[in-house]
Write a structure and sequence with these properties.
With 92 residues, the chain is mainly α. The chain has one domain. The longest helix has 29 residues. It is globular. The protein starts with 18 loop residues before the first helix and ends in a 7-residue tail after the last helix.
Length: 92
């Protein structure tokens, strides 16, 4: 993952699409896929978010929960903004 795509501890909660959302669209899709596969959140935090849940359990859980919630928002609402703007060039 490029350095400008660092995962923050909390995903955005704005009612509109953010630059962070655009940069992390693939991350959000991976989170939704993992949830559909009933993957363990700790594995997802380690693999998708690159946060070690053993070393940083609170941070990993907080980041996982907020990013999954944002991924669900993107699936319900935010994708419309992506369609209007076009897919981010960094994710193609």
């Amino acid at each position: 993952m490029p350095p400008d795509h660092t995962i923050t501890d909390l995903a955005p909660s704005a009612p509109q699409l953010t630059l962070y959302d655009e940069q992390h669209a693939v991350t959000y899709m991976r989170l939704l896929d993992a949830e559909a596969d009933d993957a363990d959140w700790r594995d997802v935090a380690r693999i998708v978010l690159c946060i070690d849940p053993v070393l940083e359990p609170d941070r990993a859980r907080r980041a996982f929960d907020s990013h999954l919630a944002r991924a669900k928002w993107m699936a319900r609402h935010g994708y419309r903004h992506l369609l209007q703007r076009g897919w981010p060039k960094s994710e193609e």
